[in-house]
Amino acid sequence: MGSTQGAGRYVPPGRHDEDWRWPGYDFAVPENWPSGVYIAALSPGPTAVPHPEPQRAELLDARHSRLLFVVTAREPGRGAHILYKVPVFTYHAYNRSGGGSLYGATHYSHDEPRTGTATVTLRRPGGGIGGPVKGFPDAHDPRTPRQTFAHWDAPFISWLESSGRTVEYCTDLDLHGTPGFIDGYRLLLSAGHDEYWSARTRRHVTAFRDRGGNIAVFGANTCWWRVEVTDDDTTVRCTKYPPGAPTGADADALRGSGGHWWEVDPENSLTGVSYRNGGGHWEGLRESTGYTVQHTDHRIFEGTGLREGDRLGAAHALVGYECDGAAHRRDADGRAVATGADGTPAGFTILGVADLPPADGWHTAAREDPAPERSATFGLYTLGGTVFNGATVDWARLLALDPAVETITGNVINLLS
Predict the structure, then answer these.
(1) How many CB atoms lie within 10 A of CB 13?
(2) Is the pTM higher than 0.85?
(3) Can you give the residue range of the structural domain that contains 285?
């Protein structure tokens, strides 16, 4: 805990795509603060008002008077083997402070033409905590808005740290701006919804894998949109719509969007799976869907009691709100085998499959294969390092609900770190 005081002044609200030009205040991070994700509570008055440490994830969240910051390690990788990536680009993609997000202006009229490229500034309220957020409430966990730190990341981090593991933290900008930042670690972690990646972030993470670094994704829709970051690291842009896109169209369902990673360099060549082979976009409750598991003799299933054909997470809707998959076929034994036709690396082992009923409300993206069948698939591959992907954004939610999900998570981290 720490505090600082400053003479505040009023600054009028700005636009979503322009620096709000708030006054800055220096705060010296104490040397004994470990690397971590911190929440600052802003209070008026001459003395700081003490805030008790929140005991539940939803108490971290607030729509005003909060800001999120990440303390990185002074010597990255010296004190921990695990690095957790905080998806600030994705937080800001959905942050509507200033009247818009990477999904357009909130006052957008369906009679107006779409612009191809959307822009947001990182220098405005929100971005993980605070500010209005685009999207429907999560009917399976309504305590906090989706696309915020408190919704998926905080529960995962809370579990991770309570397990006794030593972890260090960074943001997208750290990986984007510093090529060697990740080199001292054995395992890079991502959880929840890590959707927006810059080309440099992806290049640096791929190089880490190629040198033998391991990656574990306990989320989905990962590395779906490609963003550009301005040279001063304050603004993010994404080309969402191709020229002549119809009014009101879903950008994910269109081809020719310059920001789609899969149309330029399929993201599953790194992540193993892609949103275009799964689905998502839910308002309200969805059918409770889990993974039908296979290869249960694999080390990550140790201690779960799961057998071939059992369903993982079905009781608590593990597969949703968005989920990813790999193109696959069935072998002579009925097991799903990745084909690699979509860019998934050879040797990707599918450990669980959840077929998505095409007429059951799943929103889907454009892809190469016109067949309607879609499936979420979780699994892993080794190419230099090993990459595991849980392929559903709701993985973190089930850590407190499903012992098998918790056990698999621990096994993956132990194996890769």
Answers:
(1) 11
(2) yes
(3) 76-416
